[in-house]
Structure to design on (410 residues):
């Protein structure tokens, strides 16, 4: 600006430029300013297109990604292109559709919806794991025919009374209760997608150890179930941490619902599948099956899910810009992790809506897990149904009715 002041003063005094008026000087200044603004905007735009990976990825775009006449969204084509509000709104609608053709040519699913589907599949496996013990324990403690020298006798494989069975089944929740709040801190300090994936992987690995642990002592099974509860307690907080970076504000409810509905789908499918495997193959099979499926799921999760859109190697620039700008417009994301002192605990525990959510979720969880764990044993002991009949015959619809109707309420 000092250069323009000197220019103005030189023309104002009759020196070499005394023949020019003040209006001519103003026009020259306006032209210089407009030219510099256009040049600066154009340079900034093309710099962002070439170095479009952001500061967290110090790399250039791939050769195929940089195309001056490519399929970038209309609002990002540069300062020289002018578009109407209808054209920009139409382009944004294309970006938020799950079947967006820009984002995934093989299956027409955007990366954020791929994360939601994989998250839902992970919850489906987790809740299938939680169904294993409730179904398998019927065969573990029921009398079976054993051939001996003196003849056939009826004897259970595990001589566990009702108290021991209850302790073994409830031990999972001892660990599950502890890591609910710490799970949120872990998801804010470390990549939330890694916390979520490792939790399911660890629980699946421990599920493979339960049959061998049961033959040692029921106390060993309790230790494994407690450890399973500890690692699974971080899954819900970690999943919320994933959506902090991946969910645009207008799609947050939809993406979270896709992911969390996997828990109820896991209960609906886990009970009959565990019953079939236990009845026709053996009670150990359900533990091995879900353990192996969980480990295979983790391989897919590791290679297809990333912490942020900026770190995803195959995401399109269109989807990445849409996600980052949508989240940026909603409000800045906190750079550092939350600390214990920063959490407004007093406001939490003095808020009536918070207490309403706590009471409602406690009642929902109580009835949900009561049916999930005790339902197979109840139908077996009271009505005398076989394990496969408890979960697979005409009673399936009535037994799963609660879980089916709970999914939209959740």
């Amino acid at each position: 600006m000092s250069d323009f002041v000197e220019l103005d003063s030189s023309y104002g005094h009759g020196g070499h430029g005394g023949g020019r008026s003040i209006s001519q000087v103003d026009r020259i200044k306006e032209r210089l300013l407009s030219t510099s603004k256009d040049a600066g905007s154009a340079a900034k735009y093309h710099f962002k297109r070439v170095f479009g990976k952001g500061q967290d990825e110090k790399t250039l775009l791939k050769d195929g990604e940089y195309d001056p006449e490519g399929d970038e969204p209309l609002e990002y084509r540069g300062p020289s292109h002018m578009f109407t509000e209808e054209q920009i709104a139409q382009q944004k609608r294309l970006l938020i559709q799950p079947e967006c053709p820009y984002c995934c040519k093989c299956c027409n699913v955007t990366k954020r919806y791929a994360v939601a589907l994989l998250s839902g599949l992970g919850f489906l496996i987790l809740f299938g794991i939680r169904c294993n013990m409730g179904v398998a324990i019927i065969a573990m403690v029921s009398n079976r025919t054993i051939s001996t020298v003196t003849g056939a006798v009826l004897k259970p494989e595990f001589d566990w009374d009702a108290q021991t069975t209850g302790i073994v089944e409830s031990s999972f929740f001892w660990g599950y209760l502890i890591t609910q709040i710490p799970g949120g801190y872990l998801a804010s300090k470390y990549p939330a997608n890694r916390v979520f994936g490792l939790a399911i992987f660890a629980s699946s690995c421990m599920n493979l150890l339960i049959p061998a642990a049961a033959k040692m002592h029921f106390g060993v099974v309790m230790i494994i179930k407690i450890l399973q509860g500890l690692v699974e307690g971080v899954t819900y907080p970690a999943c919320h941490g994933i959506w902090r970076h991946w969910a645009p504000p207008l799609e947050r409810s939809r993406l979270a619902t896709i992911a969390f509905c996997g828990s109820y789908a896991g209960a609906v499918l886990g009970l009959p599948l565990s019953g079939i495997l236990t009845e026709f193959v053996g009670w150990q099979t359900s533990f091995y099956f879900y353990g192996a499926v969980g480990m295979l799921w983790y391989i897919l999760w590791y290679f297809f899910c990333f912490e942020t859109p900026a770190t995803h190697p195959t995401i399109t620039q269109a989807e990445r810009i849409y996600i980052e700008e949508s989240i940026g417009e909603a409000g800045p994301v906190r750079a550092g992790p939350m600390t214990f002192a920063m959490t407004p605990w007093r406001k939490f525990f003095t808020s009536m809506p918070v207490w309403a959510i706590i009471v409602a979720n406690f009642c929902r969880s109580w009835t949900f897990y009561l049916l999930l764990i005790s339902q197979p044993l109840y139908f077996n002991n009271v009505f005398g149904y076989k394990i496969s009949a408890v979960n697979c015959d005409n009673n399936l619809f009535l037994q799963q009715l609660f879980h089916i109707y709970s999914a939209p309420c959740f």
User: Anything to note?
Assistant: Confidence is low (pLDDT under 50) at residues 1-20, 44-81, 95-107, 393-397. The CA atoms of residues 390 and 396 lie 7 Å apart.
